[in-house]
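We treat protein structure as text, and this decision shapes the records that our systems exchange. Because each token names a local backbone shape, the row as a whole describes the fold. An entry from our holdings is shown next, in its original layout:
>
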Amino acid sequence: MSTYARWILWVGARNEDIDYDQITEEGKGFLEKLSEGVNIMAEYGTLQKIEEIHMHGRLVGLGIVCGNLDWTTDIETENEFHVPGDIELEIKKRVLQNDLARFGIRVSPKVYHHIDLGG
């Protein structure tokens, strides 16, 4: 059995901040495709890659992964990392808010980070 640790920086909305009763029929189809792993940018023309955000095997929100750093035992080129600046994150928040609003998903995206542990 392998174990992993991954640090994730994401812009989005937590599940508890999404009013699923207000989502349009197109939005429900959008969420279904999202859960199936469909390329949302190609299918719906969103400006960013929106995805489900998981932590410890459970769905915690919807958003855009801005940074993803896997734990390793050695320093390799895969460990090189760029942390987006405030302006870049603010732009991602606004674009995500507009993309989700098309589907009746009205949220005020925020920036989150967490460490996902698994094995």
